[in-house]
Amino acid sequence: MTAARTPPVPHGNTAANAAILRPYQREAVSRVVTHFRTTSEPAVVVLPTGSGKSLVIAELARLARGRVLVLAHVRELVEQNHAKYQAYGLTADIFSAGLKRKEAGRQVVFGSVQSVVRSPERFRDANFTLLVIDECHRVSPDENASYRQVIDHLRVQNPALKILGLTATPYRLGQGFIYHRHYHGMVRGDDACFFCDCVFEQPLRLMVKQGYLAAPERRDMAVERYDFAALAPTDSGYFSDDALNRVVAANRATPGIVADIIEQAQTRQGVMVFAATVAHAEEVLGYLPANEAALITGATEADERAERIGAFKAREIKYLVNVAVLTTGFDAPHVDVIAILRPTESASLYQQIIGRGLRLSPGKDDCLILDYAGNPWDVYAPEVGEPRPASDSEPVQVICPECEHANLFWGKYDGELLIEHYGRRCHGLVEDAGKQRQCSFRFRFKVCDGCGAENDIAARHCNGCNTLLVDADDKLKDALKLKDARVLRVSGMQLEATPNGRGLPRLKVTYHDEDGATLAEWFALETAAQRRAFDAVFLRRHLRAPGIPWQPATPAEVVAGRERLRSPDFVVGRQIGRHFKVHEKLFDYAGRYRRAADAG
């Protein structure tokens, strides 16, 4: 699919092939072709599980003039994508050790990334023009990872290689979004993402509304649940088997949970059970009807695995228990119950699991989601992009006051009032001299002492003057050396509407440290100019939900809205005459000094 050749010459019966595509599939294909006519930057298409990614891949492979390599991480996906292409009446090769085929001579090749990366000599002179990666959220940022090795090898032969990724969940645990820009005009991941643009996305809610997928019906289970609340993920972001087993092993809740699954599924066709560990899955299997259930783990032999999956798809058995092996690449449309007996580390994994039950099938109206692990995710809620900062935070919409882009951040509501969010910079894309750039508005920031520019709270160099930003620890260290400075480790912030020495109404803000020391600052809000100054020097830094319109006109209004405000981690005061005046406030501190909030 080269930029110089337009339009592409199709193979086979164009009208018949186009007719089998749904409208959103045709739009996805069109947007991909348009993108690659002007650039070779890697692109992503986001389609929910069950939306027919294989058909989109087949159509793109059919339209391409040059050679096409389609990669996936499991043999089931390789086989599925190959079958859809063959259904066009076309032929293609398969390069997959798991499928016992290693052919790479035809124009289109469907392969497993594991087999391809181990056989670079078979692809030395292949000169592919288009690489398609299914489940592309598995492309690691690590340049030594398998997908990156294959990409580097193919780019040596063709530097203009077009790379397209398809996924239902375009994020990676610990990384966030896998692409930088979205065609709706917003930034998602950082500019170091391997994939540059999301060129098309079909929302899951719309798929269900239009009748292309079965509706997920999540039920709040009344039986006893597992309590995974105390679990903490490892450095890799995943829960360890040892930690999971401490919760589920011989747990008295298991028999009741399995009995409830059987009760809920009485009139249902197919049930998938997602267990926490192998030992847990074996215990769950023991409580299910022996002649109606099977278990699949990572250790299940290939032939035995195929036999059990075949029996489940043929409806010879009703229950299929698994441990983290059937979250992708598994297609059994009759599944209408998903039982989740494990914590999911991310919205991505949760959505992948539920996606197993959303395909349409005769006699199937919806899919029951039975969650016995208290997972906080909503199947319709998109990933925010950053790790959830607190267990009680949820996705919230924040309008940028500069470009009016509707940002999606983690945040918290108090009733209908958004009182806190954790966004740092607007994700909107704005036009600048004919090009798109990210909106410069920052909700949270640190100011360069040299030029006054606002920078990300984690930045080391100023984006305005490129000088090295003074480290927060260095500021505290220097202040502690001064005789005329006072450093407070803030343990509390008090707001008062009180008259000053001349009887004029003022807002007094007092910062307290653990040892009883205090520093205070005073603000007047009587005139419009005073209120603008208050907004600039106080509100922008102290608001828990910066960017949300709030313009208090009196000290009493500020005090009444104290729940909207946050205190700094440290305050530095400098002595002016007989009094100390607030000189600097440090927010979002992450240095070596202990904060008051971290006291044991």
TrEMBL record:
Domain (Helicase C-terminal) spans 257-402
Pinpoint the Helicase ATP-binding domain residues. 34-188
Q: Which GO terms describe its biological process?
A: translation
**Signal peptide positions (record):** none
Q: Which Pfam families match?
A: Helicase_C (PF00271), ResIII (PF04851)
Q: Which InterPro entries match?
A: Helicase/UvrB_N, Helicase_ATP-bd, Helicase_C-like, Helicase_Restrict-Modif_Enz, P-loop_NTPase, Ribosomal_zn-bd
Offer a single GO CC term for the protein. cytosol
Among the GO molecular function terms of this UniProt record, one is: ATP binding
Full protein name: DNA repair protein RadD
